[in-house]
Amino acid sequence: MNAMSRNTFIVLLLSAMLAPDVSTAQTTDLDLRRLPWDIFAETMIFDGKTSTYIYTDIKFSQGVISIESDEGRATLDQNNSGSWIFSGNVKIDVNTSKIECDSAELLFDGNVLTKATVTGRPAAFSLQSTGLNDATYAEARKLLYDVQSGVIEFSEQATITESGNEISSSYLMYDINERRINANSLGVDDDRVRITYTPTDSTIEKEALVEGGDR
Q1: Is the pLDDT of residue 12 over 60?
Q2: DSSP string, 76-112
Q3: In the prediction, which pLDDT does 43 show?
């Protein structure tokens, strides 16, 4: 996968996954705090000692974000600051992106998402970009996104695939503000950064035309 494809994929993935309203680029924290939470569940228990809400078979939504899981636990204050932990068959849908994982922890300051941690064996991510036939697919055992710093980290057997091209590493980091991606390995052969590039039919045809013109 070339650098442009990787950058395009990650920017789209982050925008689709974690931006509360990808259609409005100028959304402010004040706007986000006004978005309601809709919760549907089979059961709900409130633990007063820990101020924790426990839901089973839960469906949670806020704006364009929709989450389903076997269980959801929310530990929040009166301003909705705190954490949501979803576990068991977690499915997250946001616009054209889908995530399937074992667990996801979302940290909120008020109604505003500040950090997200997704884990799985592995966690699977897919994104269907507008105007493209092929979906972008990613796997990692852990994803950590710091919304305030604009940095997302893929770790533990991270792999990104698009149009047959693949980059894999033990650790991938993307800085949204700098538009920079870093791939690091543990320094051993099996964990080195690996890139697999698969030429497309159009690329082969162009190369054939160039070779034909040189004769």
Answers
A1: no
A2: E-TTS-EEEEEEEEEEEEETTEEEEEEEEEEEEETTE
A3: 96
In this predicted structure, the answer to whether residue 141 has a pLDDT above a threshold of 50 is: yes
The CATH number that applies at residue 205 is 2.60.450.10
Those residues with Cβ within 8 angstroms of residue 126's Cβ, 6 or more apart along the chain or in another chain: 97, 98, 99, 135, 136, 137, 138
In this prediction the pTM is: 0.73
Number of domains forming the structure of the chain: 1
DSSP state of 37: P
- Give CA–CA dist 121/143, Å, rounded: 12
| Distance of alpha carbon 172 from alpha carbon 154, whole angstroms | 5
CB atoms within 10 A of CB 170: 21
Q: How far is CA 140 from CA 18, 48, 100, 169, in A?
A: 17, 36, 11, 10
Contact criterion met (CB below 8 Å) for 12 and 6: no
- Tell me the two tokens of residue 205: 């045809």
| Dihedral angle sign, alpha carbons of residues 22, 27, 31, 32 | positive
Q: Please answer whether residues 171 and 142 qualify as being in contact, where contact means their C-beta atoms are separated by less than 8 angstroms.
A: no
Structure-block tokens of residue 6: 């990787």
d(CA 182, CA 70): 35
Domain that holds residue 142: 3-213
DSSP string, 9-65: HHHHHHHHHH-S-TT-TT--HHHHHTSPPEEE-SEEEEETTTTEEEEEEEEEEETTE
List pLDDT tens digits, range 45-91.
999 888 899 999 999 988 878 899 999 999 988 888 899 999 999 99
